[in-house]
Amino acid sequence: MPAAKPLESQKITVAGCGDMGLPMAQALITAGFDVNGYDVRPLEDFDDFANNMIDDVHLIQQQTDILISIVRDEPQTLALLFDEQAVFSGEHHPSHLVISSTLSPNFITDLNAKLPSSVVLVDAPMSGAVMSAETATLTFMIGGCNSAKDHLKPLFEAMGKAVFDMGQLGAGMTAKVMNNYITAATAVATRQTLERAAELGTDPTKLLEVIHASSGQNWFASNFDEIYWSTQNYTPENTMGILEKDVRSSLAPFGGPSSDLDSAILKHLKNL
């Protein structure tokens, strides 16, 4: 790992300032870090945060020490790093890359091989959805070399309430996609249960109270009213679509769906 400047003197860019990335960048600024945001959307979309947004990739290459990527998926990650925006295409680039998108663990391994040898890669996906990003109470799962994880830990603590060191590079992503597999299963089960209860004349709101206090308790049901996407119908572009992507990411190391449960979760997500 290259010698690092003190973290408080390093320039951070958060790439992908959407529902999750924007409040994460704001939390870092609140904690006193030097942070810019980057997004393919126009600056006027960011209201008061526009002054902290940059729209020139060359500025990332020239001025950023730590790039935190929170773009949607693997194609957007490749576009940011190597293809369209191509942050790592020139002589100058960030010294540290943090991947906080939810991607396949296999992708992290392949990505590390593509990066310049001087770049330190850490996988740091997070859990908690938008409500936790807005309150800086996310849960992070970290993979990478110990020195890099120790150096960057204050950033994760500024954005979250829990930081789990999972071990080697890719282990954080493995933890995240396995966690999201369970989230998808409970989301499908909860939605189907509420629909069936309504058909039988039982108040779904009261049933959610019972679930929260009983053996069926799960994060999706307990936070149903706070999760903005809890009642979404599936489209590839919305959060249910992202959850489907995460399930597929968890299955990628095994060559795709390998059990009836895998196939059923994917099928029922798309039928929501």
Sketch the topology as an H/E string, one letter per element.
EHEEHEHEHEEHEHEHHHHH
Q: Going across the major beta sheet, what is the strand order?
A: 3-2-1-4-5-6
Number of domains: 2
Which topology of the largest domain does CATH recognise?
Rossmann fold
Walk me through what this model shows.
With 272 residues, the chain is α/β, with parallel strands linked by helices. It has two domains: 8-169, Rossmann fold, CATH 3.40.50.720; 174-271, N-(1-d-carboxylethyl)-l-norvaline Dehydrogenase, domain 2. The chain contains eleven helices and nine strands. The chain has helices at residues 21-30, 57-63, 74-81, 105-114, 129-134, 146-159, 171-199, 204-212, 219-222, 239-251, 260-271, and strands at 11-15, 34-38, 53-54, 66-69, 96-99, 120-123, 126-127, 138-143, 160-167. A six-stranded parallel sheet has the order 3-2-1-4-5-6. Strands 7-8-9 form a three-stranded mixed sheet. Helix 1 (21-30) links the parallel strand 1 and strand 2. Helix 10 runs antiparallel to helix 11. The longest helix has 29 residues, at 171-199. The N and C termini lie far apart (46 Å). The model has no long low-confidence stretch (mean pLDDT 95).
